[in-house]
Specification:
mainly alpha; 2 domains; two-stranded antiparallel ribbon; 7 helices; 56% helix; 3% strand
Length: 206
């Protein structure tokens, strides 16, 4: 591996990111409109932005996010950090992963490309392609953001090493035990209301 120190830094940033996101998710579940929770949400957005900027600086140094440069776990960390970043940063990281994949699929953490693609498309108000994105509805339940040609969704997922799409899990308290959630169905899809789109995605828009 060419850049083990950057790999370690990316993994450490991701661990911090996941801890803070889970803690905030728990707070929102308990007291969604409490002033302290709202303030913490803003601070979390600032910390996510700081991590994203540092991640971009690392990407500039390593040139391309390939496995031989930062490893599989470092590449995964870079992609997940990008998912919590603003649209412009997310798009830049997606382009970098797509270029790496086009040059050498075996040397690329391809599994992150579908999530980045779907998140970018959603922010562009377009249909997702891989079925990775669910949004929180006004009723507090997840709903499935529409997919382009749903009947071919799992075929596209398989090309990037992903299993069939399933309903999301609540990861607030870590990965739950028990059976896997059901597979995603076409009837799970619906468009978000303007309010739902704003509540879910406004923080990610530039």
């Amino acid at each position: 591996m060419l850049f083990p120190d950057y790999r370690d830094e990316l993994i450490a940033m991701l661990e911090q990111d996941q801890q803070e996101v889970q803690a905030q998710s728990h707070s929102v579940k308990c007291s969604p409109n409490a002033p302290a929770v709202v303030a913490d949400e803003k601070r979390l957005a600032q910390r996510c932005a700081q991590r994203a900027e540092r991640m971009l600086a690392i990407l500039a140094e390593i040139k391309t996010p390939t496995l031989d440069r930062i490893g599989e776990d470092g590449s995964e960390a870079m992609g997940v950090i990008a998912l919590h970043a603003k649209y412009a940063i997310m798009k830049r990281v997606l382009v970098a992963f797509e270029a790496a994949y086009k040059e050498n699929p075996v040397n690329t953490y391809r599994q992150i490309i579908p999530a980045l693609t779907d998140r970018v498309l959603m922010l562009e108000r377009k249909k997702q392609r891989f079925g990775s994105q669910w949004l929180m509805g006004k009723n507090g339940r997840f709903f499935f953001y529409p997919v382009e040609e749903f009947q071919h969704m799992n075929e596209r997922r398989a090309q990037y090493g992903l299993h069939k799409a399933r309903h999301p899990r609540d990861l607030t308290y870590g990965v739950p035990k028990g059976p896997l959630p059901p597979y995603t169905r076409e009837c799970d899809q619906r468009q978000p209301t303007p309010e739902e789109y704003e509540n879910n995605l406004s923080e990610l828009l530039d």
